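for ur thesis appendix - Alkaline phosphatase family protein. copy paste whatever u need, i formatted it the way the template wanted (i think)
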Amino acid sequence: MGTRSASGQPASAPATDCPQDPALRYVLAVGAVSAGLVLADTGHDGDIDVSPTGESAEPVVCDARARAVAHSWGIEPAGEPGQSGGPGTVVVLVDGLGLEMLRQRRGHTPTLRRWLAQRETAAVGTGAGILTCRPSTTAAALTMLGTSALPGTTGMVGYSVLNPRLGPALDPSAVPGPDQVLSLITWKGDNVPSPRSWQDVPTIFERLPAGSAVSIGPTRFAGSGLTEAALRGASHLGADRLEDRPGLAAGALRRGTPLVYLYVGELDKTGHKHGWLSEQWLTQLERLDAAMAELVRRVPAGTRILLSADHGMVDTDPDHRIDLSAHRELVRDVVAVAGEPRLTHLHVACGDADLAAEVAQRYRHVLGERAMWIGTREQTGEHLGALGARARGVVGDVVVAMAENWVLVDPRVHSESAIAMPGVHGSFTPVETEVPLLITEA
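the 3d part is after this line
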């Protein structure tokens, strides 16, 4: 008998991997069911959201949907649902590894190159690549991975947002500054909401039986703001060195933990500092490949490994930086700036919709082809997913997605180091939004 959704209708895999239903949101859920686990209902299961483009997608992925997607990817969970006595599953999330980046550097990755070739020639599944969410940034994508919900549902719509306790409408006298902004990575500040209560969509881990999943990554991530918002519910095993993480994963599996989430952040950190075309980034890619070879060697035979990424990256330079504070037409009527240089949220005086439309048109005129997309809050559901109340309170009145390798910066808000970053992401280009989906067995 085929799987069925909570509404009783036959569950099926996404017809296409499209921006309104990016396949990255299924990866952790598929990892869970592939390990023999069952996703508990959340109250949202079986509901359907319709985006402004007419696409439909469940706000949260139900168990039946996850099983249908797993089947479409060539994954057959062992045993009956709820019987997790098999070898287990490891979901590897590589921060900052776009599909095109991997393809261009595959000569340095004998392990990943083999996995890539397996997916490219597979008779079933998505191939070697899937889409991440828009914006293509860590806070949004990891929360989508962790909850299976789009940014428009979770409210995790960028690197930073207007502090929910200030907005959504600001006085005309307000001036953009860092004190207005909440970082969805750090959640630091004196007047910020609790990440657990503000982002209250249940995570995949919270929907699994207690003790059935562990998370492996740097020690400092235990209880961090982003972890609490996006990935709470799993026991955390700290490993600051990438080389130590495969052993921890293997140990957890051998102790009977069916699902392991393994985070790799070294490529993203190095890409931001040196650019992804640098020798330093290539060194981190080679470390990743060696760690994946070690993972295969150490986990129990038959362990399934799913590797994906939250976003890709583009390299920029000073000639492609636009300082909005230096352009009178860009400054006018903007009372707060959030997001990031590749995907900027602009807030206008009093949140006035007519003024927002005017500002959007002005930005289109000034930026021209240097911007990939500029729209008002009402238009952002096309990219972020249908906006719930949480997102509506923090999404900019105007949102600007930059083209090619252009960035839009504001020294009143962004630090010197953020402005000078050679490696950036967040926009809608294929290099940033197409990520690998590699599936193999040990």
